[in-house]
Design a protein that fits this description.
By secondary structure, the protein is of the alpha/beta class. The protein has two domains: 2-54; 80-281, Rossmann fold. 40% of the residues lie in helices and 17% in strands. It contains eleven helices and ten strands. It has a seven-stranded mixed sheet with strand order 3-2-1-7-8-10-9, with helices on both faces. A three-stranded mixed sheet has the order 4-6-5. The model is unreliable at 58-64 (pLDDT under 50).
């Protein structure tokens, strides 16, 4: 009782009252921060559990437990992996080659295939991302290399480990730096191999059914380094930002693959899909 009377008298003094008010405010803020931290920790745990399930790190089939009914998980940037799954719906043990793979799950056009039972080769000049591939896709071969016209080395420009615009094209890197007000990164030398060399070393017994190419402005160089008379994947997905449906022949990618006997059958935002002519004739018969 005496303590309450003392506090009441003290609070009648403006300076003392402000001290008590500041203390009470600080205590309320601390409690709110504690609750926010608990919420953030709980949300982080839930997200970690979902990511583990979606990427196959959890119990088999657990992805269905975290997804709403009738839904399915996609990993691609624009939904490209659903197109790939449609084409190869009956193939359970196929093989793929993912050039410029980036992350093993984030924006990946091959992660759904991996979870289905496929395996293949991932290639990227970003050593950080290749480490992620090695950890998350133990059935795959993951190579820290670049792919281009001829064997040798090439300068690789990395803005940071997670940047999807990292590139071996200095022109493309300068455009990104200017548009995003970033410093132009210093190029680092990485090993350069050709598409035909990768095929010969890793797919000599069986050409991959699916090839994905996304190498930031150097896609034509990759295509030109292949042996298209010997290695003919059934479907190719390739980024072609400048493609126009009104003038497809303006695209060097379109012209090259058309000349090799591939038909463009789908377009998903910036990704063009091509199907090998004989495979198309004996299966989907896309016009």
């Amino acid at each position: 009782m005496l303590r309450g009377m003392i506090k009441e008298v003290a609070c009648s003094i403006p300076t003392v009252r402000r001290v008590f008010e500041q203390r009470d405010t600080a205590m309320a803020q601390a409690e709110a921060a504690r609750r926010q931290l608990q919420d953030a920790q709980r949300e982080a745990a839930e997200l970690s559990s979902e990511l583990s399930a979606l990427t196959g790190g959890g119990v088999e089939g657990s992805a269905q437990e975290v997804l709403p009914e009738y839904s399915k998980a996609g990993f691609s940037h624009w939904g490209e992996d659903f197109i790939v799954e449609f084409i190869f719906s009956s193939v359970m043990d196929g093989r793929y080659l993912d050039i410029g793979c980036f992350h093993p799950a984030l924006y990946s056009n091959t992660m759904r295939l991996y979870r289905k039972g496929w395996s293949g080769v991932n290639v990227d000049p970003n050593p950080f991302m290749i480490k992620q591939c090695l950890a998350m896709r133990p059935r795959d071969v993951s190579l820290n290399k670049a792919v281009g016209k001829e064997r040798g080395s090439i300068e690789y420009y990395s803005f940071h480990d997670w940047a999807s615009s990292n590139t071996a094209s200095p022109e493309f890197a300068r455009v990104i730096a200017e548009n995003q007000n970033l410093d132009m990164p210093v190029g680092k030398s990485v090993e350069l191999v050709t598409l035909s060399e990768i095929m010969a070393e890793h797919f000599s017994d069986r050409t991959p059914e699916f090839v994905n190419i996304d190498v930031e402005d150097l896609d034509v160089d990759v295509l030109q380094s292949g042996d298209w008379s010997r290695y003919r994947p059934k479907v190719i997905a390739i980024e072609d930002i400048k493609f126009s449906s009104d003038a497809p022949d303006d695209s060097a990618i379109y012209r090259f693959l058309k000349a090799q006997g591939y038909r463009m059958f789908s377009r998903c935002i910036y990704t063009s899909f091509f199907i090998e002519k004989d495979f198309n004739a004996n299966s989907f018969q896309f016009p």
